[in-house]
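Lab manual, section 2.4: Encoding a predicted structure.

Procedure: take the sequence of the chain (136 residues), apply the prediction step described in section 2.3, and record the output as structure tokens. A sample record is shown.
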Amino acid sequence: MKPCRDCQRQISEQALACPNCGAPFPAREPLSSPRQARFLLTVGLLFATGAGYFTHVTLEAFGEMLLAAGHLPAAATPLLRFSPLLLALGPLVVLGVWRFWPKPTDRGIAAACTGGALFFFLPNLASTIMSSLALR
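Recorded output:
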């Protein structure tokens, strides 16, 4: 007999679910310790901050170049003005995932994966937006 990792009720080591709280495989150790979860949250925040920075730089530099060359409509200038908000977007998404993820032991993994996805998604989104505006 071992305690369930969620509710601490004594259950069989072979139990597929806790009869008290319904946790799957309740005798198994959690996926990560709080220390590992905090480390992964930090990694996720760094990735997300980097994604926001590269997206901001892409929008600002490429957009100003297209404006100067006359290839970008003047209607796109608010997009350039608000591009610094993208610096905060990635970390806010990661913190939102951290805050609302149901299992505390999986938060760090979810935050790191979200930050990594944003790191690859946001800069590509910025260049796609700028390219589509330049084609008009």
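Check your result against the sample. The mean pLDDT is 80.
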